[in-house]
Amino acid sequence: MLHIETFSLGPLQTNAYLLSNADRTKGFVIDPGMNPKPLFKRIETMDIEAIVLTHAHFDHIGGVDELRKWKKCPVYVHDAEADWLTDPKKNGSARWPELGALIETDPAEYALDEGQTLTLLGETFRVFHTPGHSPGSVSLLYGDKLFAGDVLFRLSVGRTDLPGGSQRELLESIHGTLFDLPDDVKVYPGHGPATTIGYEKQNNPYV
Q1: What domains can you pick out in the chain, each with its CATH number?
Q2: N or C: which end of the chain has fewer CB within 10 A?
Q3: Spatial contact of 48 and 67, defined as CB atoms under 8 Å apart
Q4: Residues of the chain with pLDDT under 70
C-alpha cells in the first residue's frame, strides 16, 4: 500500500499529492502546482517515477517544468489537453497574470485515456476520463482511493465557466462514472479536504 501525502500549493491552494513506497525512497506526484517548495523539500532525496496530471490548468501544472527537469521524470496528461502545457492561453496562466508568471513547458511524454491502467511504483491505477471542468480532466482510482482533480469536491463541484468546460459533461462524469463507485471510496480532490463518494451522494447540493 502506498503512502499518500497532500501539499496545498500556490495562491489557489491546489492539492498536490505525493504517493510513495513503504520506505519513502520512491514516489510519483499528482498535480505539482504553483509555488511547489514544500513539495520539493519533501522529495529532495526521493526518486520520482512520474508526474500525473488530472488536468492542465495553470494552478495544477506550475511545478511541472522544474520537477521534470530536476527528477528527469515523464509527464502524463489526457490528449484533449496535450497542447495546454505549451500554451499559457489554454492553461489559463495568461488569463490571470496577477497570480504568477506565464506557465509553459514541453509536451507530456504520455497520454492518459478512459479505461487505461497505469502501473506506478508497482501499483495499479485505473484512469477515468471525467470531462466537464475541462475537456481532458481525468480521475485516478487506486484501490478505494480516487484522485478526482477538480471534478468533485467536498460539498461542491468544479467550475464549468472556463474554456472547454461543460456543466452537462461534468454532471455526466459525476453521475455516470464517479457515483458508480462504491460509497466508501475516499475522494482526494484538487482543492479542499478529502471526502467520500457516499457522503457526496447524500449531501452535495450541486449534484
Answers
A1: 3-203 (3.60.15.10)
A2: N
A3: yes
A4: none
